[in-house]
Amino acid sequence: MRFALTRGRRPPAPPASQEVGDLVRRLEIRARRLMENRALGAYDAVFRGHGIEFAEVREYEPGDPFNAIDWKVTARAGRPFVKRFVEERELNVLLAVDVSGSTEFGTRKRTKKDLAVEVAALLGLAATRNNDRVGLLLFSDVIESFVRPRRGRQRLRLLLHELVSHVPSRPGTDLGLALRTAGRALKTRSLVFLLSDFRDGGFSRDLTALSRRHDVVGFHLTDPAEGKLPRAGLIEVRDPETGRLGVLDLGDAGVRERLAGISASRADRISRTFRRSGCDQLVLQTDRPYAPDLAAFFARRARARLK
């Protein structure tokens, strides 16, 4: 069930050009400060290129793998040589951001969309500092905007400008369409950061298909009111993606428990979908700092690579 209080925050009007510029600058400053505090200190240890390239041949040393021997060079030299390869560092990074109506919901410090924008800015800066190519895909139940991955700080600024200034044309969510679009657009193995509240249940097959060719990390954007509703009596609510109106009696403990159960079941279903697809997932909340959660997530992933 999706809902928002009818007196809650409405989708904002298109920001003015000066306002967009100010927002982008604030995003860049905040992201740089977090990077300086090592919020994503393990980024380069966790997300490397997924291919290998030939570097050189060298003489065999005890412990070198047998299948690394270069038999042609060995035959010519009369003693064993092995091929040495290095991992490709360069990555394509795609920030796939949900801008549907439900992401405008927020009852604490920020909306889910605000959270997505801040996290995307931090991830984009981390990728740019590692000389990765960064692109942007904004989606609702249509593809709102797509910017192909390119390198450079000016490219990142362009992406942030698009992320801040874009006003969605549709309120719904189609995660499957976004995942299929990413799969068609990315020609080489890439890293896809998917930022969404996942208010769409039909994306499991497309997520699995995308994860076979690319490294997909999901960031589940949540608000505490979705799982723990206040005892507020009768309230009018509106589905942010369909516009349907309804009335809830939050003074009824049974109603609050059922809604909390629906929210918990949805969160569990999303987690199981990511596990089955072989993708990592991190839950982020609007009411708490996201940098510590990101740092812990990257550290866990870095440790997992070493096992």
Describe this entry's structure for a reader.
This protein has 307 residues and is α/β, with parallel strands linked by helices. The chain folds into two domains: 4-47 and 90-306, 3-Layer(aba) Sandwich (Rossmann fold), CATH 3.40.50; 52-87, no CATH class. Helices cover 40% and strands 22% of the residues. It has nine helices and eleven strands. It has a six-stranded mixed beta sheet, with helices on both faces. Strands 1-9-10 form a three-stranded antiparallel beta sheet, with no helix packed on it. The chain has a two-stranded antiparallel ribbon with strand order 2-3. A hairpin with a 6-residue loop joins strand 9 and strand 10. Helix 1 (17-36) crosses helix 4, helix 1 (17-36) crosses helix 5 (153-165) and helix 6 packs parallel to helix 7. The longest helix has 25 residues, at 253-277. It is elongated, with a radius of gyration of 23 Å. The model is unreliable at 5-11 (pLDDT under 50).
